[in-house]
Amino acid sequence: MLNEERVILMTKMASYEAGEGKKSMSLGRYFRGDYISIQLLRAFFCGTVAYLLGFGLYILYDFETLISDIYKMDLFVFAQNIIIWYAVFVAGYCVVTYAICACRYARAKKSLKLYYHNLKKLDSLYHR
What is the pLDDT of residues 45-56, one digit of tens each? Predict the structure, then answer.
């Protein structure tokens, strides 16, 4: 005989596995620190590329002024400002990434905890 409660629970779990569960299960394989450190490393490299692209576009946009003033400006101060802005940009990007990944990981763990609870409940329904 089909147990209606089991069918409802299995349907709910199958829909979770097909949707949100895919991402949550892939996050659940990692420890919290490992997941966040991997994401921070990716954010560092992506932030560096984004800063270099933005800086390159700024240089191309203001190229005429830069070339005309290059002999008048202090290149050491100019390079120091570039490095400071780079550090601020990447640090801010990494802080935002940390906050987002920590929330995402906590949500995934909570969701997986409910999923495993439903698995145990389904198992107990089979043994009844």
Answer: 999 999 999 999
Angstrom CA distances, 127 to 6, 10, 14, 117, stand at: 11, 15, 20, 16
CA dist 63 and 115 (Å) reads 57
Residue type at 110 in one-letter notation: K
What count of other Cβ atoms lies within 10 Å of the Cβ of residue 17?
A: 13
- The model's pTM: 0.82
CB atoms within 10 A of CB 42: 12
Please write the tens of the pLDDT for every residue from 87-101. Answer: 999 999 999 999 999
Tokens representing residue 21 in the block: 């569960």
pLDDT bin (cut points 50, 70, 90) of residue 2 is low
Nearest to 53, CA basis, from 28, 7, 86: 86
What would the two tokens of residue 104 be?
């995402």
Tally of helices (H runs) and strands (E runs) in the chain: 5, 0
What is the CB neighbour count within 10 angstroms for residue 24? 21
Contact 42, 80 (CB under 8 A): no
